[in-house]
Amino acid sequence: MSPTSRNAFLDQHFPLRLSRYEETDMVRFTTLFFALSLLVAGCVAIPSENEAAGYTRSIVQDAIRYYDRNGRDAAVEYYSSEESVHGQWYVFIVDADGYTIASPNADMIGRDPALRVDASGYFYGDDLMGATGAGRWISYVFRHPETGENARKHTWVVRHDGLLFASGFYPDE
Length: 173
Description:
CATH topology of the largest domain: Beta-Lactamase
Number of domains: 2
Strand content: 15-25%
Radius of gyration: 26 Å
Number of strands: 5
Strand order of the largest sheet: 2-1-5-4-3
Low-confidence stretches: none
CATH superfamily of the largest domain: PAS domain
Structural class: alpha+beta
Mean pLDDT: 85
């Protein structure tokens, strides 16, 4: 083949003379490099409770993964239990008609969507139902589960598979 052909470089043979030890070191280095690359690529920082907005978003994402893995019935059962509550954080699930189908607060399950009015008189139902697959933040005044006092709550809502998955936090905490 002529040196001017397109693949001339590939046709060249370069002798690679490594000692047995150099070859072993190269294999170890290459293996370590790829293993570390996979490890770093697979690592995702999980926000702490001190980073309330990020933590809230991660809880909602976890709920969606739980739903996808275990199905609707299992998700509704789990997120309606006290076991799913983490301090001020809990997930609630709303169906396409606006009715709450999962919440650790049994009084909220089956609640009429027309009653989504906060303690200040603000109707937040439209904000909630307007969530998309990309998610959205909504804010309203709600009873704090730990203090029992009315407080401003910021809630992250994501529409997934025809349902709304939501969780919120109280910023003053």
